[in-house]
Design goal:
The chain is an all-alpha fold. It contains three helices and no strands. The chain has one domain.
Length: 169
Amino acid sequence: MSTFVYFQLYTFLATLYGGIVIAFMYDIYKIYRNILKVRKIVSTIQDLLFWVFIAMVAASVLVFSNDGKMRGYSLLGFITGALIYNFLLSKVVVKAVNEILNFIKKVAFYIYGKLKKAFNTIFKLIIYPSKKIYKALKPLIVKTRKISGIPNRILKKTKKYTKLVLKKK
C-alpha cells in the first residue's frame, strides 16, 4: 500500500475517534441538561456554545489528522464513530455516569447532614448559655442603661432651663 492510502486510513481512524469523542461529549451534555433545568433562552445559549465547542473539536481533529481538509471519508469517519459509540457504549456510559453522580449526591447529602447536625449542636452550646447569662444580667443591664442616661438627661434639662433663665433677663 502506498503512503497516500496509509495517510487516508490514518485520517479515517482519527475522524472515527473524533466521532466517538463527539458522541461521548453529547451524552455528557444530555446528562448535564437533565440535571440542570434552565430557562429556554439559557438553554438556547448553552446549545449554541455546545455546538461551537463540538465544531472546534471536529476542526482540531481535521487539522491534526488531515491538515484541516474535509474529505468524504473524514465525514464518514465522524458519522461512523458517532454511530459505533451510540450503539455500543452510549447506554453503558450514561448509566455509569448517572450512578457516579447519584453516589456523589448521596455522599454530599450525608456530609451535609453531618455538618448541619454538628453546627446545630455547636450553635446550641453557644446560644443556650448566652441566653441564660443575658437573662441573669438583664436587670443589671436595665439599671445600667437608666444610670448611664442620667448625665444626658441632666445636660438636656440644664440647657432647657438655661435658655429659659436667659430669656427672662
